[in-house]
Structure formats: structure tokens, C-alpha cells
Amino acid sequence: MADDQRPFPPGTYPIVVVGSGPGGLQLSYYLNRLRINHAVLSADDSPGGMFLKWPLFQRLLSWTKPYAPDGPGSRRFERVDWNSLLAEDPELQSLQAKHMDGTSYFPSRAEMEANLTDFADKAGISVRYGCRWESTARVDDGSEDRFVLTTSDGDYRCRIVVFAVGVAEPWNPNIPGVEHAHHYADVGPPEGYAGRRVFVIGKRNSGFELASGMLPWARTITLASPSPPKISVVTKSLVGVRARYVQPFEDSDIGGGCAIVNAAIEEIAPSGEGLRVTFKQTADGQIMHVTADDVINATGFVTPLRDLPALGVATFGQNKLPAQTDWWESATVPGIYFAGTITQAVPGLGKYGIPPNSAAVLGLRYNAGILARHIAETEFGHVPATKAVSSDDLAAMLLDVADQSPALWHQRGYLAHSVVASPDSGFNDLGVCPLTAFLDGGGEDGVALTMEADGSGAIYPVVYVRKRGSASEHQLPPVGLAEYVTAEHSRALKSALDVLST
């Protein structure tokens, strides 16, 4: 497309969104719905973000069931569709199932890319593709603009900037000889490792994805890191090795050529037979050696923040995630927000050590809608949309939320449905927000309902009731079939809500 036909030429915009992956597309959709003028810039040539390249061996870890209760577009269908973006428009809902060939309920990378492209096209989301963000500076000229973004196409001034650039920059550990290894991001087709001895550093999803894909090809595979791997079905979260990648465990147990080692890597050095990997076993400190043809760092990625830390954006952890408020704004530089997988940096309450699903589409898509609404209200004066709820109907409404809400089910213990007391009578339904924002907000009397999972397999609603600035917590009974519109739950919830009427 000719330069003069591309959207969003360099200039001044109220908001600039950087990135065209799921986070950037979902945020732009909701900003459009709120009629908030903004520009979307992307270094890529098409929508999709990381799904233009990864996962390497083509199958996603998140599933979409094409046939599920109540059909596409329903709240129950959304519960089993982890990969479609959200929309109010029926023609934009549940798009992922329409791009799957039925061979697996885990979409292929190409099917996910087609889903995101279809969403962007049908939603009319404009993006200036091929425009690479290069640097950021503050504006200090007395105008409303706070930042200027220098890009490969020119400068963009804006009041608000939202970075939806993913956690996608390869990270290599500081190991002597690490230059002899290559990163997950540079791995070729699995058949290219036929007959080779492969040593993988890392035992999370990337490491086990490599091992699973190479099992039919590699002569031997060794996976090593200091800690034992965690299985996601045991931890009850997406953190851990997903069920799709458990085959290497069985292969290791039967001595089929795959070894899973708890050990710290000491050195990688060339030898006459290939690469000699020296490692120290976690259990007894014994030094061991393995000779490999290929050493691969499945050691993760960092956030590509470029010069933002120099601008004052605080970061933490190996992934260099930016420190953020409950509303995904930089904790140290007001006006800089984050969307997409970067929102995983906000842990929520973390009562049971189970993190939110913000690193995956099934979680970040809800964060994006909340963020768009928050920016519209706090930065541009939009009046929040509320729905009146009578005192008599409040308990029934909240139980229906517990029974049906996909946002609370996918972001358990992290997002909550909040209702506040009306100055006149009854209550105002504010919809979904971060639970910690409700608890820290003080203000009006009200109630927030979230879903919790404690790691034991139990899932149950928890109600936080705020009265005169003080919050009390009430756990409702868990149910095996996860259906909460019952007389028992109604009695328990009404009892918890009684304090609001006094």
C-alpha cells in the first residue's frame, strides 16, 4: 500500500497503541466502540503478533471446542473458546471455531492467525503496518501531549500510549559458552534434528514443546533446569507444562532416549564430538557432562521495552515486565499503559499462588475491554455505563454472574463483578473490574463477586462486601457441577449482603 494510503500518518493523536497482536486488536476494538480516537502502529506486516511466528511446531496450548453448550456467541461457549477475541457484534463472536479443520481442538498457528486476521478485517480495525516504534521521549511544552514516539515512519505525539508489544524478545541466560547455543526463537523444523543429540535448557512449555516435536526425530533429548517441571493440570493454572506436552515424561520414564534432569548448567564448550554441556545436579551437587550436537535455550522471553526504562518505567524479574497499577498503567510513569500479555505483570491478590491468565488470550482479552473503559472514563471524561439493580434482585443477579460469567471463570481470583450502592436506592451494576481495584478503592458501599480456585480442584464464588470503607470476605459453597443458582447459594449470599441494608 502506498504511503499516502496507509492509515495514521505521523502526527498528533489522543492515544497511540503499539502492537497488532491479540492485545492491540482487542483494545482497539473497544476504543472504537467507545468512540475514542486513537492510532494503532505495528512493525509487523499483518495482524497476529507472536502468532505470525510461534509456536514453532504449530499447535497452540489453548483450546477452542467448536461444539459446546449453547452455541457460538453465548457465555457458556465463551468459556470453552480460549482463542477468539471478544465483540458485541454477533458476526465477530466465536471466530476461532470457524477457522479450525476439526483435527484438534487446539488450533494450529495458521488457524489462530486466520482468526485474528478475520477479526481485524470484519471489525474494521485500522493499523499502520510496517511502522516500527524506535524510541520514546517526554513532551514538555505545556500542551496536553505527554509523549512523542519516534518510529520508522516519523514522530507521533500523544497524551496516552499503550504498549501491546508482547513478551517476545528472546532471553539467553548468563552461562559460560552460551554463545554456542541457539534460542527457541531460532529453532528450525523438527526434521532438521533427525539423528542428532539435542540438549534443551529449560523445562517449561517451550522446552517440552521442543522435546515433543523432536521425539520422532532426535537421537537423544535432554531437558535440564534446576527445578522440577510443574504440570498445569496439577497446578490448576496455565503456569506449568500443558497436557499436550507430557509425552516426553513417558519417554523419559521408559528410557526411550529422552532424559529430564534437575540441574544447573555450568558451561557449554565445543569438543571434538560436538558441544560438551557441564551441569550440576540439584539433588546432590554432582557434576555431570553430556555431549550434544545442538544446545537450545528454551529460557523464555523478555518484554521489548526499548528505552522505556530510561524514561522512568520501572521493571522487575527475568522477563523485565513493567511494574503496573491495578489498571495496567506504569507504576512510575503516568500515561503509559500496557495491554496484551504484558498485563501478566499484575498478579492480583494471588491468594493461593495461582496466577491470573493474563499471559494468554483467554485472560488478556477481558483486561483489554476493562482498560479501554478505564482510559475513557479517567482520561477522557466518559461517564461510566451502569445498570440499576434493585435490592431484591441483587443476589439473583450475582448468582447468575457466578454461574455464567466467562470473564470471572477465565480470570479467577483476579477479575470481579462489582456493584455499588446507589445514592437514591438500590444498586448500580458497574460490571467487571480488577478485584484489587475494588478492594483498594474505598468509596461507596458495594459488593464484588469473583470466582476462586484453590488448587485442590474446588471452584467456588467469593463475595467481598464493602461497608463504610471496610471489606468482609464470604466464600460460597463449591459445587461439583459448578452450578450456583441454587437455594443454598441464595441463602448464603443474601446473608452476606445483609450488612448493606443496615
List the helices and strands and how they pair.
Elements lengths: L10 E8 L3 H12 L5 E3 L33 H5 L29 H15 L9 E6 L8 E5 L2 E10 L5 E2 L11 E2 L13 E5 L3 H10 L5 E6 L6 H4 L11 H7 L4 E14 L2 E8 L5 E6 L1 E4 L3 E2 L5 H4 L3 E2 L4 E2 L13 E3 L22 H20 L6 E3 L4 H11 L1 H5 L4 E7 L5 E8 H6 L5 E8 L5 E9 L2 E6 L11 H11 L5
Parallel strand pairs: 1-2, 1-5, 5-17, 7-13, 8-9, 8-13, 9-10
Antiparallel strand pairs: 3-4, 4-5, 6-14, 10-11, 11-12, 15-16, 18-20, 19-20, 19-21, 21-22, 22-23
Helix pairs in contact: 1-8
What is the spatial order of strands in the main beta sheet?
7-13-8-9-10-11-12
What's the story with the biggest beta sheet? 7 strands, mixed
- Gross morphology is globular
Averaged pLDDT, please? 92
Unreliable spans are none
State the separation between the terminal residues, measured CA to CA. 64 Å
Helix content: 10-25%
Tell me what portion of residues adopts beta-strand conformation.
25-35%
According to DSSP, the number of beta strands is: 23
**Rg (C-alpha, Å):** 24 Å
Structural class: alpha/beta
> What is the number of helices?
12
Describe the structure.
With 502 residues, the protein is of the alpha/beta class. The protein has helices spanning 22-33, 75-79, 109-123, 205-214, 232-235, 247-253, 308-311, 361-380, 394-404, 406-410, 435-440, 487-497; strands spanning 11-18, 39-41, 133-138, 147-151, 154-163, 169-170, 182-183, 197-201, 220-225, 258-271, 274-281, 287-292, 294-297, 301-302, 315-316, 321-322, 336-338, 387-389, 415-421, 427-434, 446-453, 459-467, 470-475. A 7-stranded mixed β-sheet has the order 7-13-8-9-10-11-12. Strands 1, 2, 3, 4, 5 and 17 form a 6-stranded mixed β-sheet that branches. Strands 18-20-19-21-22-23 form a 6-stranded antiparallel β-sheet. Strand 4 and strand 5 form a beta hairpin. It is globular and about 80 Å long. It starts with 10 loop residues before the first strand and ends in a 5-residue tail after the last helix.
